[in-house]
Predict the 3D structure of the following.
Amino acid sequence: MDANVAGQPDTAEFIELHDNPFVTLEDLSIVVYDGATDLVVGAYDLDGYHANAGGLFVLGGPGVPGADLALPADALPDAGAVVIYIGDAVDYPVGSPVTTFGHWEAVIYGPVDPGLAVLNSGTPPLEDALGDGEGPSNQRTPNGADSLGALYLFAQGPPTPGRPNVPLHHTEPFCSGSANSVHPEGARLFLLGSGSVVANDSVILVDRVPDQLGYLVAGSNPTALTPMGDGQLCLGWPNGKLMPVVAQNNVVRVPLDLEALLYVSGANSLWFQFVYRDTQGQFLNVSEGLRVVFTP
């Protein structure tokens, strides 16, 4: 989604949906709220539409080539919410207040009035946390992930309406996590931020983790699996652990000082795992491993 594009009027705004190839969008509507008033400023019926062969469907302004459903210029306020409702657009007339009736999923981008928080269970607005409201678009990572509105599965990258999202950095998992008290597949890792050493804005996010003490481990290479509690450590030597942190709501964020980490490793790649306490088994577990290739 890209709601705030440089220049006036905003003609390159777009909303992109992702699902299975050719899935029908029957009985769904897209509703846009203004973050200053909490009132509907646009509603678009999706009856008769379906996703393309890549599972994508784009609602776009006059400057978005190949949009499946046309939006007028400035259709998206600079701060607000885009909501998928089960129902017809006529049920959400312009000027009507925020409602959760028929609500399926919402993305809130800010800063906005607190009244919109009911749409996303209090999840912070995107641009408040991700930073740049005008340049890149807000994208789910990995491409089209089912985030259920979760902020931590969004990143910012070059706008690519109608095409797969392009991350600003390269990541790949390299070993599996183990079941814990929160999720049968264990804790997983994501990289937020640009992945740039100069920007130094990168954060490792861990989700599906118990609300217990843990610490991030960074290494310069992977290695054979070493049992650790109910999990396995997959990092080679040298490796080092960062400051201990406590998860909240099964999520933890660990800021990275890339200049220091990459100076120690002497490479542009790092391998990460999160070691944490649990309330079951051996009371200790390890997340999946994540390799990140950073840019200058």
Q: What stands out?
A: The CA atoms of residues 143 and 165 lie 6 Å apart. The chain has two domains: 14-133, 170-293.
